[in-house]
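Pasting as-is:
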Amino acid sequence: IRQLLKDIHHRGHEIGLHPSYEAYRDHGQTEDEFQRLLQVCGEEGIQQDCWGGRQHYLRWQAPITWRNWASVGLNYDSTLSYADYAGFRCGICYEFPVYDLERSKPLPLLERPLIVMEGSVLGEQYMNLQGEEALNCMFRLKDRCRLFNGDFTLLWHNSQFDLPQMWEMYKAIIGG
C-alpha cells in the first residue's frame, strides 16, 4: 500500500481518504483513519495542500458526516450522489461550501458533488444499463456538466477493470 501511495503521488494524482463503513457518523473513527493516512503519507514523503475523499458506500448523514470531516481537517468531501441513480443529487455540478443547518454556521469544508458512479449506471440492483446505453447515460451527464462549465466528478472502481469492455468504457468517458 505504501508503494501504491507513492506511485499515485509521483504520477501527480491526489491521495484521498476513503473511511470505513461506520465512520460516516463516528468522529473518532474518522479522525483515527485520517490521522493514520497522514502519518503514512508523511513517512513516505507525500505532501499535499488539500485533503478530501469520499465515504464508503456513499454513506452520509446530515450534518454529522460534514461536521466530522471539517473537524478533523479535511478540505472537501465527494460523497453526495445517489447510489441507485447517476445524476445531480445536489442539483449542481460545482463544488460548494457546506453549511451546518442545526448550528446555523458554515463549516470549513467544500462538497464536490459526485455526478456518476459506474456502479450506479451498470449495477443490476440500480440502473442496470449496459454497453452503448450505459455509455450514453454517462456522456449525457458529462455533457450537462460541460454545458454549465461545471465539474464532472466520476467514481470508477478499479475492480471493474477486470473486464476489457469496462476499461474501454472508462477510457471513452474520461477522454470524451
